[in-house]
Model the fold of this input.
Amino acid sequence: MAQTTQTTGSAEPLPGDLPKGFRGAEAGWPELHRIPHPPRRLPLVGDVLGANVRTPVQDSMRIGRALGPIFRRRAFGKEIVFVWGARLAADLADEARFAKHVGLGVANLRPVAGDGLFTAYNHEPNWQLAHDILAPGFSRDAMAGYHPLMLDVAGQLTARWDGAAAAGRAVDVPGDMTKLTLETIARTGFGHDFGSFERPRPHPFVTAMVGTLTHAQRRNVLPPALARLLLRRSERRNAADMAYLNRTVDEVVAVRRAADASGAAGDLLDRMLDVAHPDTGERLSAENIRRQVITFLVAGHETTSGALSFALHYLAGHPEVCARAREEVEQVWGLTQVPAYEQVAKLRYVRRVLDESLRLWPTAPAFAREALHDTVLDGAHPMRRGAWALVLTMLLHRDEEAWGDRPEAFDPDRFTPAAVRARPPHVFKPFGTGARACIGRQFALHEATLVLGLLLRRYDLVPAADYRLRVAERLTLMPEGLRLRLVRRAG
Done:
């Protein structure tokens, strides 16, 4: 999930004289005047000319290209500092001086996710407690246990796509990837089957989740007074969506609690319910368990579905890359119909395709960092304790200083071992950075690599001749309207 531009929401309550609520950059950056901003700034409303409320991240990309690696935007009386230069981002990655900042976009999800792993403030004790309890759930042994369930859900997808290929129908790539990833995280993490592939429409959980993310995005770009005026109906709909998410998760947890302990699945939900912290003996509260389950169900499928959708878009549009990736699958997996867990990591070129797709369109397109104490960013920009900046991951991933003079080109060989070693550190950040980086990174990468391998071996991907990539923003990114025609391969 992403952190995108907002002018409302609550930030972390910090000790001392730092203000609560949304903190503009005016108080935290003593030399803010040295940081460029867009021309034609308007009184009261700020830098809104040419802005599109549906695409705030892509707007910021356009402005960042024009203004350089650090810039600021003003909206409704608040300044926000954006960073995308490789050196600046590397400095912000210093865990001794900076930490995750919760308050930009992400804070609008706290009514539903609370102090879950993604939305917890740094000072909230449940973050460390949950992290320590749940981290073993992403160990190698745990991942190997999830692998058969991933294969089973992928089989549901290919059965659906076989039918589409036989009928000559194009498939809705983002829609089907969403079904795939929701079922995968629900079954592997919580032993729950949403039955997504048996439904003609998205599961109501997905509808409620998309509604909540879309509502949060709308709040991001409106001042509080205007949001209260314009989003009354949306607020009511959002309240209903959150209530549905809560009810769904409560039912999943209740079923597990009622199950015979001897039938425990040993998954993430079992860890939440049964495992105490190894040092303190503390356990997660019932309320926090609900928040963690919602966090994993939403974040665990929304971002991976986007990553798979972008990767399939690029594979369909680059036949030479597709052929090379398919050849690797055939060489590594051979005649094996059901690839073993260990065979997935051997698809090194397929993984490069995935990484390059995440470089160009990281589904979590930004992350925020705040100063732990007074410091100077990159030796040039003083920051007071609590001052924060938003790192635009999509522009960081396009910085010519790190990626060369053709950063917009799709080239999986940017991720050969030699190329990775030659690049500066901290320039590829699709999963965030530091201690608060995505805990499920290896889960997502294994799932996505496995699925791409299975689909490449089974289908030729034929793009629509008139399709041009459009990117929808709902805190995360997703290709809009992407449909592919499939040709079933022999064998």
